């Protein structure tokens, strides 16, 4: 992909061998990942696989008992893990912003929407006049497809989908180059989910930003992202362009995620039965990723790997021991 690289050849985000622990729990076990400029990357996996932890690590928002034990994260050339204080606060929102899980329930119930978005902007950019702030908020509401009257409304007057759009407006207020959206639509009904997700994608295109879309809804991801990274037990086990991942899934865990799509649309929790919950308190070797076709990387040295090439893999019988 030509848009993969900046002029200097560097991706927008580069994560190298990041480990995050919560006490004895190894939540992220040596992740390597890049996000290119303009790219939408899907980060998928079951609950507990470490997706949110990885997302929070990118913003240095891991709090005790959590700790980023080692690794490097570069965003826009800035070494995030050795940045501190004011620079780090500035970096959040202006370079990278997070739409956290359940964010629509964290809106202040006694404050009008317009004031909440204004406050979010002012916290990072105090140079604006009242008038220009108001104009900015109105244009943000318009970007997320909300009518201007929402400016004067309170959260309880809005539907779930509208509240989530407000959270998107806040997250994009300072035009970040990377938007991280953690399960941004999981609390919404299926139809609303799709329209909100489409708005998120449109906004991201308008801002020329990159996005990491964290989630477990493979069907939704298939429609929205350029590339998917599959996480299992704190590691990326497969990453590929979206069409390639769905047509040629190599890792057994990826295949099971794809096979469980119907149960996801029925809104049952995603549980890949064939894969037991690993004990995250035990040290595990980091699986090595190998390229099986251009841009398609798979952990080929763990017990669930299919060591053939992706083309052969699609012909292949089941590789997972059941029961
Ligand atoms: N604050 C915390 N304290 C202790 N353990 C934590 C904390 N946050 C996460 N963990 C543990 O780290 C592991 C990874 O959790 P994480 O929330 O990153 O996974 P996830 O894939 O995002 O799941 P979900 O989709 O449910 O959010 C889990 O075993 C979880 O119990």
Automatic annotation (TrEMBL):
Keywords: ATP-binding, Cell inner membrane, Cell membrane, Membrane, Nucleotide-binding, Translocase, Transport. It is a peripheral membrane protein. GO terms for molecular function: ATP binding; ATP hydrolysis activity. Residues 281-323 are annotated as: Disordered. PROSITE patterns: ABC_TRANSPORTER_1, ABC_TRANSPORTER_2. Residues 13-258 form the ABC transporter domain. The keyword tRNA processing does not apply. One of its GO terms (biological process) is peptide transport. GO terms for cellular component: plasma membrane. Coiled coil: none annotated. SMART domains: AAA. Residues 285-323 have a biased composition (Basic and acidic residues). It is found in: Cell membrane. InterPro entries: AAA+_ATPase (IPR003593), ABC_Ni/Peptide_Import (IPR050388), ABC_transporter-like_ATP-bd (IPR003439), ABC_transporter-like_CS (IPR017871), Oligopep_ABC_C (IPR013563), P-loop_NTPase (IPR027417). Belongs to the ABC transporter superfamily. This is ABC transporter ATP-binding protein. It comes from Jiangella asiatica.
